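Hi, here's the filled form for the chain we discussed.

Project: internal
Contact: R.S.
Residues: 646
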Amino acid sequence: MIDDPGRVTVRRLNRAEYNNTVRDLLGVTFKPADDFPSDDVGYGFDNMGDVLSLSPLLMEKYLDAAEQVTARALPMVSPDAMRKTFGLGDLRTEGNRRSGDFWSYASSGKATLRYDAKFNGEHVIRIRAQADQAGNEPAKMQLQIDGKPVHTWDIRGNRQPDFYEHSITLQPGRHDIAAAFINDYYVAGKADRNLYIGRFEVGSPVAPAVADRVSEFVSARPNGNTSVPQAAEKVLRPFIERAFRRRATAAEVQQFVSIVESVVKDGESYDFGVRLAVQAVLVSPSFLFRVEFDQKPNDPKAERDVTDFELASRLSYFIWSSMPDETLFKLARTGQLKEPATLTAQVRRMLKDENAQALVDNFAEQWLNLRMLDEVSPDSKLFSTFDDRLRADMKRETLMLFSEVMKQDRSVLDFLDADFTFVNERLAQHYGMKGVRGEEFQKVTLDSSQRAGVLTQASILTITSNPDRTSPVKRGKWILENILGKEPPPPPPGVPELEETKKSSPGASLREQLEKHRADPGCASCHTTMDALGFGFENFDAVGVWRDKDGQHEIDSSGELPSGEKFSGPVELVRILKARKEQFSRALAEKMLTYALGRGLSYYDRCAVDDILKEMSRKNYRFSELVLGITRSKPFLKRRGDGDRE
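And the returned structure, exactly as it came back:
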């Protein structure tokens, strides 16, 4: 067998990876990629390099997202980002009439803005005003905050609009900001002093934590001893290297430094130039794609070890769906990450980190097809208790079991026969469990005669059913593909649908209908194994509730597999499947290796899978040994040029 590490196509960050990466790179908490087009799926996962294309629409979304991310992460870089404008329609007025872009005050009155201050700090208030002059003093406009006068301006000039500015510290909360006309003067037919009040502008501070982060980010500024390009390089180089997840060349850094230089030459602030450079980094191919450079990219025999920086990214996007943290970067810079003991220690550290939840949300959810749960619609007349809240509870139960196995480093065989699960009151009632109260999920022990592991959880049972009934065929096919790693053959052409059998025998049970359907030799080739597996779970209805009858028919959940193994219910079938631990572990290892590499597996990957399974069996199939085996494997640590080997 060929010992070949294979080759991974240059991979675009998928939506989950983009959200997590900008979070860890710039500290933003919103998720811009939620607005991106859905990622294509290959080999069961949405992080496959071969299918992650870049459409014009997605490029537009990247441009918009880069602007949004930098505006939120670096709000103090652009002064305008902090200033809000309020037009005449935003103001409450007294004693006025409309005059173009102003409220006109002939004797007295005021315009009031109801303003919500988000943070404690200095606010800059600017009010556009003009006046008709009369008498021996200019028109006066008084600034009032919450009914109290704080400042008075002389509004000079006849109909010459200008902005009048004052700074004041506001506490968080709602405030009334008012501009009042306080010195009317009028002589009939001779003189009339009037005030015209236009729009308000309020420049507000940002959250202290954000301000601190901005100050930390813009760590160097030009001064008498430091030029603009020198300061910009000091700020941008470490950011670029984190964003690109590798060392950056002088030419690459200069591209972004020149943006700052150009902005400053055009009269804008240095901080604004830094912000635009950061925005440009976020739309660079080196940020949006995970690129691994080869000296001989078109030579399939040119095999090499991945670099430490490439390994850091492979680890972090596998376990965290995000960029490396500073620990991984430091080990990559010093060339220590590939040392076996260091690599093992880092994998164990990463699995304990809260970011490892991404392996639950992105790997487990796709491996178990849980995203299909969002699309199923059980018949509301037959299953009236099913709603979106119960749907979410079902998914959470399964993901919490996966998380428990991962965090406690339990055997992966617990996925099949765990004697515990996690439920809240709503899901417990769905299962007929007693003693569980409230919305919070809690760990409970299962009734060993009815349920064990993921195969008896409502999420799996629901996605493998039809809207109005169970489907032993779908359930059996799901077990073959996801638990045993066997792809059932496609049905031969011309095979009648089950519905035709149902019409010919309307009084028959579902089991009897399938037996007649399977009597056709063309059907039997596929259904012999699938139906037997599926019937083992017929005690569960289409939304996972235990039952002993299906209408008038008693449930028969017994069966015999083609291997001769017999069972009389779901728990006995689960035990049979657990006994095939090597087959299940291989199926799981192949799925997770596919996810980790971002490519489909080929015949030459069998050696790597064999080695992973060998270590797992020696260590009681611990979850960590599965992940460690993948990160130590040749396809994870090496790559080669493109093309087929002879």
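Let me know if anything looks off before we file it.
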